[in-house]
Amino acid sequence: MTTETYTVASNPSPTPASDEAASLLHVLFAGESQTKPGHRLGPKVYDFYLMHLILSGKGAFTLGGVRRELSAGYTFLIRPEELVSYESDPREPWRYRWIAFSGARADGLVREAGFPDGESVTALQDKRKAALLYRSIYLTFRGARSSASVQAAGWLHLLMALYQDQRADKDHQAHLKRQENDDIHQQVIHYLNTQYSHPVSIEQMSEALGYNRAYLSRAFKRRAGMSPVSFLLKLRLDKAKLMLRERPELTVEQISASVGLQDALYFSKQFRKQFGQSPTAYRRLMLEGS
């Protein structure tokens, strides 16, 4: 059975109006809780920023009517005056750490950390470093030294830098993925443009290009909007259409074989499906037009 725990430490220094640094960014409190099953907070609003890191278990976070199921490694951010609610799972109640902060610099800081407008949830690949930083703010306040406010602001900056670095890593990985998809797209197009007249198989092409068949097909489809098989058929039909216009001495069967389709009946059926008329009718129309 899960034992409920709750501990919190507040900044021993108030937020003096005359203190410019504190008015720009002030950490208010930090804490940790092992919630009981089904524990719920809200719907409610806060007048400060409140950020939670889930250490274990799971629960749900609702913002703007949108409910998100979250588990260990996720962070959810609550902005001032946002109507939110969050509740722990009835079977695996979450344990989380949190920090609260305010100040004129706070909004820019959370944006830089990877929480632009409309985004309040992110997942950390390695939550251990973040968990230590949350804990460091709590312990700083427990120490109640005169420098606690400055130290806590420093820990908060390090924490936000951690989120920012992860966001940058994700963006870089996404860029590399797009770049790889572009490379695969170009390689497939080049390969099929040189091999379409032969009995090409996707397995052969994948092996020749050095990719797993399923991975290559997915990557190409993401970039081209169609599978390599569909692209190859379209390429062959487009080549055949050109030959029907420019090579009147060749029969339909010869043109079909020239573009890698050995079955002339299959070729005629696909040609009609693609262009709305048979190869013979298309050729006749082109000859009459000339």
CATH superfamily of the largest domain: Regulatory protein AraC
| Uncertain residue ranges | none
**SSE string, helices as H and strands as E:** EHEEEEEEEEHEHHHHHHHH
CATH A-level architecture of the largest domain: Sandwich
The number of helical segments is 10
Q: Could you tell me the strand content as a percent range?
A: 15-25%
Question: What is the CATH C-level name of the largest domain?
Answer: Mainly Beta
Using only C-alpha atoms, the radius of gyration works out to 31 Å
Strand order of the largest sheet: 1-2-9-4-7-10
**How would you describe the oligomerization state of the chains in this entry?**
single chain
Largest sheet: 6 strands, antiparallel
CATH topology of the largest domain: Jelly Rolls
- Helix content range: 40-55%
Helix-and-strand structural type: alpha+beta
Number of domains: 2
Distance between the termini: 86 Å
Indicate the mean pLDDT.
89
Number of separate strands: 10
What does this structure look like?
The protein is α+β, with helices and mostly antiparallel strands and 290 residues long. The protein folds into two domains: 5-171, Regulatory protein AraC (Jelly Rolls); 229-289, Arc Repressor Mutant, subunit A. The chain contains ten helices and ten strands. The chain has helices at 20-24, 106-112, 127-143, 148-195, 202-209, 213-224, 228-246, 252-258, 264-275, 279-289, and strands spanning 5-10, 26-34, 40-44, 49-56, 58-63, 66-71, 74-78, 84-88, 95-102, 121-123. Strands 1-2-9-4-7-10 form a six-stranded antiparallel beta sheet. Strands 3-8-5-6 form a four-stranded antiparallel beta sheet, with no helix packed on it. A hairpin with a 2-residue loop joins β5 (58-63) and β6. α4 (148-195) packs across α6 (213-224). The radius of gyration is 31 Å and the shape is elongated. The relative contact order is 0.09. The model has no long low-confidence stretch (mean pLDDT 89).
